[in-house]
User: Which sequence fits this backbone?
């Protein structure tokens, strides 16, 4: 149910169409405000969410021209400050940028969405121009976010294939607790991550085993737990002397993430989570020692 402040319209329905009680068949009392009603309201709320009819607002700015009496020169008015020089306002621009940037729609698909859903007809070329303008407008914001990364104690870095202009590019991501920065590049090389100010980074970086991340200091590199868990499952399913090590490691990993979920859900305190994690670190150390000796 929506909070009271988010409800726009309240419509009350009363059982006045059936004047008799369903149980005793006596006449029902009248609606509140009329004689015969007492006590607190008793109702069941049924909420219906609906979109308003989208009717784009078009403002026509008429730049008039007047002749100066002294010399007869005709001078045309200029657009007032804040009036877009293009054909679309900032809300249209932001809406156009969302489908492609967030939901991976093509320029043609975005043009269709704008026309069919918002009622704003817009060409594919205009869609591309607005997306480019949005990227330029967000460049200072992106730079400010990138500047926060070196001071973060922990970062996550990853890359994935991304279709762009009919080719396969790579979408790189570096994330801290405060910011997530994406960079689209034709290169799969590790230099993209280094350019995101990580070349001189001295904190902990969580990444997968991709070779492009091997330049990271191994003492401060946390491998993705999904990769480690798959390795552990391989030990368990392969059988042989390493099975008991795999079962032990799988139990520790499950306990680690169970404790993390408990902390996120406020079922245990941060201090308890840290204490248990230190205990599991000792367990992993013993496990690795035994695994090395039995290899």
Assistant:
């Amino acid at each position: 149910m929506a909070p009271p402040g988010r409800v726009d319209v309240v419509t009350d329905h009363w059982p006045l169409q059936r004047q008799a009680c369903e149980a005793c068949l006596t006449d029902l009392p009248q609606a509140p405000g009329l004689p015969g009603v007492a006590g607190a309201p008793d109702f069941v709320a049924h909420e219906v969410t609906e979109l308003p009819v989208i009717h784009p607002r078009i403002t026509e700015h008429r730049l008039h021209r007047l002749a100066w009496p002294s010399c007869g020169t005709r001078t045309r008015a200029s657009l007032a400050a804040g009036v877009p020089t293009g054909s679309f306002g900032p809300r249209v621009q932001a809406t156009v940028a969302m489908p492609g940037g967030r939901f991976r729609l093509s320029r043609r698909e975005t043009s269709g969405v704008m026309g069919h859903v918002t009622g704003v007809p817009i060409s594919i070329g205009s869609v591309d121009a607005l997306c480019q303008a949005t990227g330029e407008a967000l460049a200072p914001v992106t730079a400010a976010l990138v500047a926060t990364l070196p001071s973060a104690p922990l970062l996550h870095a990853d890359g994935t294939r991304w279709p762009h202009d009919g080719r396969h590019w790579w979408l790189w991501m570096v994330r801290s607790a405060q910011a997530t920065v994406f960079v689209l590049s034709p290169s799969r090389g590790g230099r993209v991550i280094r350019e995101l100010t990580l070349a001189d980074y001295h904190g902990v970086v969580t990444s997968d085993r991709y070779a492009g991340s091997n330049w990271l200091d191994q003492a401060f590199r946390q491998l993705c737990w999904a990769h480690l868990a798959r390795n552990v499952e391989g030990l368990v399913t392969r059988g042989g002397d390493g099975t008991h090590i795999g079962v032990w490691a799988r139990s520790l990993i499950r306990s680690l993430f169970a404790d993390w979920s408990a902390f996120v859900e406020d079922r245990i305190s941060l201090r308890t989570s840290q204490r248990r994690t230190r205990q599991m670190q000792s367990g992993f150390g013993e496990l690795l020692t035994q695994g090395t000796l039995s290899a």
